[in-house]
Amino acid sequence: MLETIDILRKKERNIIHADNQSAIDYLHLQYPWYTQHQIKEVIKTAGPLYTNIERVLRQKHVVTTAE
Question: 25 to each of 6, 20, 37, how far by Cα in Å?
Answer without folding.
Answer: 25, 9, 11
